[in-house]
Amino acid sequence: MYDKHLDGFLMAADCGSFSQAAQRLYISTNALIKQINLLESRLGVTLFVRSRQGIELTDAGRSIYRDAKRIIGISEQAVRAAKDIERLSGRSIRIGTSQLRPCKTLVDAWSTVSRRYQDISLNVVPFNDESLLAVLDALGEGIDVIAGIYPSTLWNNRCQALRLADLPLCCAMARNHPLAYKRRLTFDDLDGQTLIMIRRGDTSYIDELRDEIETNHPGIRIHSVPSYGTEVFNQVEALGGLMVSVQIWSELHPSLVTVPCEWRYTVPYGIVYPLKPAPIVERFVEAMRAAGPLFHND
């Protein structure tokens, strides 16, 4: 992974002597000096000032010393990572986790069935929600599965999904909002309010709620956004509006509360996985399918 002559160079620099370094490397002094001379020739710089008192790094040598330490560290880390991949290959599921798609629910559910699948382990891989589409396009490479709610379009059929539950759509709002004290909300409660929703066309599940509001409850003002993220949650808290949400997001923003609503609208929650999954991913998905629903709705 790196020029092995660097080992001799680093040892000589640490010892301040070619002979002492050679002893620690179990080679002759002449062999070590030849290695250093060859390294200097390859690099085109003088690494050491030689004197009867010993050796001392030149300015160029000190620069090479610092970088060589870093290079060797990176190289060793890369080898360890490669060995870990080889060791876990074929039996490890890489679960993506993000702010809007935390993996805890899935990991907790897996712990209840994992005794029957001792050959499968889970690795958690963080990602940013802003890069979700890129992650979906590369499913099966760095990340195998993602748990969370998903749209009816499956992001233009970028992946497959295993439906594990139907989560009721709720409303999130600032803790000091006048509706925050209510146990459940009705459409009448929302009259005169601004409600943030995902734009039309992203998912039929949200569009059904939008159709209901636009047709039968015109007093509710809809504000459309292309996607949810930290900025949208902050906007709800700062402007005093409401947003369509789900209970599993209730802890994402400390200043918001999530209140159930008296309507029939839900959004699916489940596992998103590649169009062509590896055999181990297929086994994992089938195991979760057999485990049954994750939530029991009221």
From TrEMBL:
UniProt domain HTH lysR-type: residue ranges: 1-58
Pfam families: HTH_1, LysR_substrate
Annotated GO MF terms: DNA binding; DNA-binding transcription factor activity
Coiled coil feature spans: none
GO cellular component assignments: protein-DNA complex
Transmembrane portions of the chain: none
Keywords: DNA-binding, Transcription, Transcription regulation
Record SUPFAM superfamilies: Periplasmic binding protein-like II, Winged helix' DNA-binding domain
Gene3D superfamilies: 3.40.190.290, Winged helix-like DNA-binding domain superfamily/Winged helix DNA-binding domain
InterPro entries per the UniProt record, alphabetical: LysR_HTH_N (IPR000847), LysR_subst-bd (IPR005119), WH-like_DNA-bd_sf (IPR036388), WH_DNA-bd_sf (IPR036390)
Protein origin, superkingdom: Bacteria
Stored PANTHER family: LYSR FAMILY TRANSCRIPTIONAL REGULATOR, TRANSCRIPTIONAL DUAL REGULATOR HCAR-RELATED
Family the UniProt entry places it in: Belongs to the LysR transcriptional regulatory family.
UniProt protein name: Transcriptional regulator
